[in-house]
Sequence to fold (135 residues):
Amino acid sequence: MLQPRSDASGKPHALRVLVVEDNWLIAETISEMLERCGCEVVGPAPDLDSGLTLLENAQLDGALLDVNLSGTMSFPVATALEARGVPFVFLTGYDAGTIFPAEFRTIRRLSKPCDQEQVADILEVWGRMSQPGSP
Fold:
């Protein structure tokens, strides 16, 4: 299990992870995985507008983004996350060369369905990144 990060007072604080996924069953599965890893789930957001709204109104440690949200691509959410310095991973079955803009072709992708171990590995990295004094 991922160790919670500490806030400014030194108290343990769960990683806050945004989930943007339009398929309710997949969103629930991902949210449960995150919660089992000790994270606080923000969302899930089923569409682009909801994802952007949650992003604007929450302090985040990371995000898991479905690429295709009922025909609308999630790249505007990815751009907003990058602008805020929030790490993210795409959840998809798409090949990088097919639909990904050049600026997102090197971003890590997990194929759906992803497994708990893959998610836990990413969370471990995000946890280290959120520690005070981390680069």
Q: What stands out?
A: The chain has one domain: 12-128. The radius of gyration is 14 Å. The beta strands are 5-6, 12-13, 16-20, 40-45, 62-66, 68-69, 72-73, 88-92, 109-111.
